[in-house]
Structures are given as structure tokens and as C-alpha cells.
Design goal:
Helix content: 10-25%
Protein name: F-box domain-containing protein
Number of domains: 3
Distance between the termini: 57 Å
Largest sheet: 5 strands, antiparallel
CATH topology of the largest domain: Neuraminidase
Domain F-box: 16-62
Number of helices: 8
CATH superfamily of the largest domain: Kelch-type beta propeller
Number of strands: 24
Pfam family, one: Kelch_FKB95
CATH architecture of the largest domain: 6 Propeller
Radius of gyration: 23 Å
């Protein structure tokens, strides 16, 4: 005999959706045209939707029809887990942008070096803090060789071949599919450089430079312009041209202490805290300038600023501002700025939107 009364330990069946009755190809055609930020909401509808939005086939189709979207990832300290965790800038139902913790990705070393390549983020090296690793019971020497790849489509981690030379204080960037990792050789006082091929997923051992002398200084920041790597050390800036395998000092670039910079259309941008300006550097003209048309006094009040980063974001510039509000927790404010080069070479900026994101 059957009963209409459901047992307490039975799970109710998932509601049948009209769209799930469509052919799989038709569903994929619909999903590929939706913004990716909608996928997190769709994954809550049913197990079938969750499986579909995590399918590699979906992302292959998006690539084939040219549907790509830029996403902003950031590492921040998570007070609950007491670790540094990945966050993604996520659009909420009300249209506001907020940074959301990515629970599926493991904790990261905040002293690692990172570079975005397509839909992946590559991670190299780690901290030079022995005490920190003893406390966390992590093999300190291993972090000096560590290399990882994060697949941002599925938020998974792939372990890569270890770096051929150990280094700390590393900076990284990419030219023609090859990632240049430049850092301080932690067993000596010189700088080392290693090159990773993103196509073969192997290190180019013949391009390793184990002993570059920059008078004991270690690199602090780097950018790529015109297929050259511009590296700032403590007091000087140097440029490396891979085609010539040659380092040269860049006198004009050294005249400003640029940091946390980004590149948009082969122009370097960074926020000058002392002058409260968004400064620019043109490597072809070897000329420093400043973005005009921005009211930075209103956008970036000088009180309680912890740090300011510039980020290249889909052909525009994002300004990420971290505030420390006394006893209140650190919070983040982001602004998206469109750029226009006018007659005479002047660069003008316009704030497209700005809001608190954390």
C-alpha cells in the first residue's frame, strides 16, 4: 500500500524546470550568451544547472564564439580562517559590485608573485619569513621553488614544475606566452631570472639567469611595455629586452618612485600619493605626465589610506583604494576610469563608476 505522506528522511524532488527539458545543445547556446556573474545564481537552481555552468564544454563554446569577460581577482586576509584568501569582484542582484570569497580555492601566501594569463592566474614563490612558516608547519624551502596555476573558470589549482632556482621578493610578467620571474636569490645577494613557457608548461632552462648583479638591490615592481620588462628596484629602474637578452638602466623612469603600477595601451600608470596625482609614463617619449580631468581630492581623500593600487581592467583603469578606519576593519573602495588621449598627447580620465566593494 502506498501513502501520500513523505517520510521525514526523504529529500523532496527538485522542481522540474522548463528549460532543462530543452536539448543540451540549446541550453548551452543560451548559457554561453549570459554574463558569467549570473552563473553563481543559476548554480543554486538545481544540480543540473550547477553541473552545466561548471562544464568545460560551456567555456569552450564561449571561447569559440568570442564571449569573454574580464574579472577582477584579489587576495585579502580572511579574519575567520586567519589566512590570505582569493576574492572575486561579483555583481549582486541589486547591481552593486562586491568582493566575494572564493571558498573552493585554498589559502595563498601573500608574499607570492602573481600574473594573469587568459583565464588563468600563475603563482610563483612565497614568503621570506621563516617564523611564519614554522608557525604554519609549512616547508619554508619548498615555497621558494613553488609554482601553481589557478584555472579561473572552475577555481581549481594545478601544481606546476618547481622553479629552477629559489628566489624571494619576486616580480613577474608575461611576453609572448613566456612568464619572466625575476627575484632575489635567497641564498645570496644577487638577482636571478627564470622563464616559464605557458604553452609547454615547462621552464626554459636555457633562459635562466642565475647571477644578475644589481648591487644587492631586489626588485619591487614590474610592468611590460612594448615587449620589454620594466623593473623597479629600490632606487633605480631597469629595462630588460628579451630579444636582445640585455638589461639597461632607465634613467627617466628612475626619476619617480613608481609602485603598484599598471599598463594601458603601452602607457604606465601609478598613483602618486605625495602629489595626489595619477601619473603616466610613455616609454617611447621617455616622458612623465599626469592624467587630467579627475577630481582626486574628492575621489582619494588623504585620510586613513592604507594603500592604493592601479589595475588594468578591460582597456580601462581601475583604482583600488584600501582604507583603515581606526578601530573599524579595513574596507575597499574601487573606481573605474576610462582614458582618452587627446590632441597634443594629453591623457584625460573620466570616472565611470566608484563604490565600496568590501
Amino acid at each position: 500500500m502506498t501513502s501520500n505522506t513523505r517520510r521525514e528522511d526523504e529529500q523532496p524532488p527538485e522542481p522540474t524546470s522548463l528549460i532543462t527539458s530543452f536539448p543540451k545543445d540549446a541550453i548551452f547556446d543560451i548559457l554561453t550568451r549570459l554574463p558569467r556573474y549570473e552563473y553563481s545564481t543559476l548554480s543554486l537552481v538545481s544540480k543540473q544547472f550547477r553541473s552545466l555552468v561548471r562544464s568545460p564544454e560551456l567555456y569552450e563554446r564561449r571561447s569559440l564564439i568570442g564571449v569573454t569577460e574580464p574579472f577582477f581577482y584579489a587576495l585579502f586576509y580572511d579574519s575567520q580562517s586567519r589566512n590570505t584568501r582569493w576574492n572575486i569582484l561579483h555583481r549582486k542582484a541589486n547591481g552593486n559590485l562586491r568582493l566575494a570569497l572564493i571558498h573552493s580555492l585554498p589559502a595563498m601566501d601573500d608574499y607570492g608573485s602573481f600574473v594573469a594569463v587568459g583565464s588563468s592566474i600563475y603563482v610563483f614563490g612565497g614568503s621570506d619569513d621563516h617564523t611564519k612558516y614554522r608557525a604554519l608547519k609549512i616547508d619554508y624551502d619548498h615555497t621558494k621553488y613553488r609554482a601553481l596555476c589557478i584555472d579561473c573558470r572552475f577555481h581549481t589549482v594545478e601544481h606546476l614544475p618547481s622553479m629552477p632556482v629559489p628566489m624571494s621578493h619576486a616580480v613577474v610578467d608575461i611576453i609572448d606566452g613566456k612568464i619572466y620571474v625575476i627575484g632575489d636569490y635567497y641564498r645570496g645577494s644577487n638577482t636571478v631570472m627564470a622563464v616559464f613557457n605557458t604553452e609547454t608548461k615547462l621552464w626554459e632552462l636555457g633562459m635562466t639567469k642565475p647571477n644578475i648583479d644589481f648591487a644587492g638591490a631586489f626588485p619591487t615592481h614590474c610592468v611590460v611595455m612594448d615587449d620589454k620588462i620594466y623593473v623597479r628596484f629600490i632606487f633605480k629602474s631597469f629595462v630588460y629586452e628579451p630579444k636582445k637578452s640585455q638589461w639597461e638602466m632607465e634613467e627617466m623612469l628612475s626619476s619617480n618612485m613608481w609602485s603598484y603600477a599598471c599598463v594601458v595601451d603601452n602607457i604606465l600608470y601609478y598613483y602618486d600619493h605625495w602629489g595626489n596625482k595619477l601619473r603616466t609614463y610613455d616609454p617611447k617619449q621617455r616622458y612623465w605626465g599626469a592624467v587630467k580631468g579627475l577630481d582626486l581630492e574628492e575621489l582619494v581623500p588623504k585620510r586613513n589610506i592604507h594603500w592604493i593600487h592601479t589595475v588594468s581592467y578591460s582597456g580601462k583603469l581601475a583604482l583600488i583604494i584600501a582604507y583603515e578606519g581606526g578601530r573599524t576593519p579595513l574596507y575597499l573602495w574601487s573606481a573605474e576610469i576610462s582614458l582618452e588621449i587627446r590632441q597634443g598627447g594629453e591623457i584625460w580620465g573620466k570616472v565611470e563608476w566608484s563604490d565600496e566593494v568590501l
